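Q: I'm building a small set of examples for a reading group on sequence design. Run inverse folding on the following structure and report the sequence directly after it, with nothing in between.
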């Protein structure tokens, strides 16, 4: 998830300066990777730029991201397969509207997948993974003690992303990434804990992973995954579209 966030940030760093032909940017003539268009639309859906049920027209999307309609069409098909987009009769592509049950299912899926990921990480992690995980725990504890709440949310994401990668299972990483991304989409962003207790729990998980104790890592992560945020889980309410017609400079996205 962190990588898509970085891409999204780069996409929003400026406006498209010229029209494009096909899927090649006029500025510099660089070919725009289709996955970058998909990432950009997905990030805007997750962040609420396009609200639940909002229409997604190829022409407007192509203009916003500075590409032709071909990569937009491909992106919409991918996002529909992922559950972010749905096709309605007489309306075309629209942002999906997950039900409360579907939203609750996401939390249950995360509670099942994260302990599995921790157990696999205990069996397959590398020293590089451990170094990053320990560094994140240290930073998390420091920021929590100092009350630097703005830093805690990205640290949380990086911790879970690194732990998933340490599992050595690309399929599991993809599933966890998708589930966490959808949770961020359907639930309002929770307030991060203001104490270092949560990061101490994560430190214990990392210790179990370092020892190769898969069952201990699984147990600790299961307990960790069941902890609700301080303000609970609140479903997002439909909101007005925020500048959906504003153009985005997608030509600066990394290949």
């Amino acid at each position: 998830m962190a990588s898509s966030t970085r891409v999204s940030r780069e996409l929003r760093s400026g406006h498209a300066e010229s029209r494009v032909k096909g899927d090649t940017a006029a500025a510099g003539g660089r070919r725009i990777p289709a996955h970058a268009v998909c990432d950009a639309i997905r990030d805007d859906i997750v962040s609420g730029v396009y609200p639940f049920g909002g229409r997604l027209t190829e022409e407007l999307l192509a203009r916003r991201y500075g590409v032709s309609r071909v990569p937009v069409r491909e992106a919409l098909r991918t996002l529909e397969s992922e559950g972010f987009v749905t096709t309605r009769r007489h309306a075309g592509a629209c942002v999906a509207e997950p039900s409360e049950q579907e939203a609750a299912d996401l939390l249950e899926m995360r509670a099942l997948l994260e302990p599995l990921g921790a157990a696999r990480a205990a069996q397959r992690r590398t020293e590089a993974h451990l170094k990053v995980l320990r560094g994140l725990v240290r930073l998390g504890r420091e920021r929590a003690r100092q009350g630097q709440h703005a830093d805690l949310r990205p640290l949380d994401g990086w911790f879970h992303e690194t732990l998933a990668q340490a599992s050595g299972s690309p399929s599991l990483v993809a599933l966890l990434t998708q589930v966490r991304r959808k949770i961020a989409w359907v639930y309002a962003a929770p307030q991060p804990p203001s104490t270092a207790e949560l990061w101490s729990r994560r430190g214990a998980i990392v210790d179990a992973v370092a020892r190769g104790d898969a069952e201990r890592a699984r147990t600790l992560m299961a307990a960790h995954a069941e902890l609700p945020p301080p303000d609970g889980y609140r479903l997002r309410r439909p909101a007005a579209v925020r500048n959906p017609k504003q153009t985005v400079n997608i030509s600066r996205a990394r290949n």
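DSSP finds ten helices and two strands in the chain.
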